[in-house]
Amino acid sequence: MLDLSIIGGGPAGLSAGLYATRGGLEKVTMFEKGLPGGQITGSSEIENYPGQGKVISGMDLMDPWLEQCTKFGLKHEMKEVVKITKKDDYFELILDDKSTQQSKAVLLATGSVPKKAGFKGEEEFFGRGISTCATCDGFFYKNKEVALLGGGDSALEEAIYLSNICSKVYLVHRRDTFKAAPSTIAHIKKTKNIELVLSSSVKEVYGDKTGVLGVKLDTPKGERDLGVPGIFVFVGRDVLSDIIKDEKDNFLCEVNASGEVIVDLNMRTNLKNFYAAGDIRIEAAKQVVCAAGDGARAAISAIEDLR
Predict the structure, then answer these.
(1) From the candidates 133, 153, 238, 290, which is the catalytic residue?
(2) Can you tell me whether residue 43 is helix, strand or coil?
(3) Cα of 218 vs its chain's centroid, Å
(4) Going by C-beta distance under 8 Å and a sequence separation of 6 or more, which residues neighbour residue 168?
(5) Pairing between strand 211-219 and 201-208?
(6) Domains of the chain listed by start with CATH number
(7) Distances (CA, A) of 27 to 24, 32, 256
């Protein structure tokens, strides 16, 4: 039986493995079928990770993490966990090869993924002018015009964030009203360099080898072409929490309406010896440095609880 099973090999899972093994837990396994490192490995430029002064790719940033995090005994199992169930005093993990693994404690670090908007060029230019993180990539468009697609709280908050960096933000929304908080909507309308493009949708994002060159919109007045070098897409996220659902869609622990796991400041859920860290949890900042901190805190909690 394992002391701690870590589900997910992104920054949260890797950091948890490092802290758990270095902190004295002997049997710790991280289950990650794909390449460890998480979504950040798909980013072409990273310049906001503390201590990393040079601009590097997400792949280069995460490349040394696995070696460091396995230095003290963390094992990497290249298998996918498809279901987690609670037994009397342990957890049972069902793997994709039908085998099972027992564990005293579990850390869920499977994250979430941005939903696709479905316009032409979305796949081609993702990471080369199309972004889903204003905090990560907004600075690359300092004093430039950008477009932003979305109408919820997150979209409007990111538009406000970008308005402090970019010369202009075209806020594109398919409806003529927003679902965001009234105070946020009021802030948007008062911000002079945010132009509302309502009842409109993104038809195509186009560009060349250098990246995005513009965005074509379907508007009530016909097609409109925005000559912007970047577009930020915020149409929701899919939380990867299906593995803690049972046959009746009941969750193993408490989650919010979006399926994000509810945790306290120590990454503990309402279920004993079950933790969540990174983008899978409520109110996650969706930043590498924050996810890494979550993983470390969850590992410390696991050490305290198992002892």
Answers:
(1) 133
(2) coil
(3) 29
(4) 145, 146, 193, 194, 195
(5) antiparallel
(6) 2-113+237-306 (3.50.50.60), 116-233 (3.50.50.60)
(7) 9, 16, 31
The token pair at 42 is 């798909």
Check: CB of residue 200 under 8 Å from CB of residue 217.
yes
- Separation of alpha carbons 24 and 17, rounded Å: 11
Tens digits of residue pLDDT in 244-292: 999 999 999 999 998 999 999 999 999 999 999 999 999 998 889 999 9
From the candidates 137, 166, 253, 279, give the one annotated as an active-site residue: 137
Q: Is 137 a catalytic residue?
A: yes
Enumerate the H helices of the chain as residue ranges. 11-22, 58-62, 65-69, 134-137, 153-163, 182-190, 288-306
Q: Output the CA angle 168-171-172, nearest 5 degrees.
A: 140
| pLDDT tens track for 213-241 | 999 999 999 999 999 999 999 998 899 99
Does residue 290 carry a catalytic annotation? Answer: no
Return the DSSP state at 127: T
Q: Which amino acid, 162?
A: L
Q: What would the two tokens of residue 116 be?
A: 């696709």
The two counts, helices (H) then strands (E), for the chain are 7, 17
Q: What is the DSSP letter of 255?
A: B
Q: Closest Cα to residue 202, out of 238, 179, 222, 173?
A: 173
Contact 17, 6 (CB under 8 A): yes
Per-residue b or e along 200-213, where b marks 16 or more CB atoms closer than 10 Å to that residue's CB: bebbebbbeeeebe
The reply to whether 253 belongs to the active site is no
* Catalytically annotated residue among 69, 136, 166, 253: 136
Eight-state DSSP code of residue 161? H
Q: Name the DSSP class of 251.
A: B
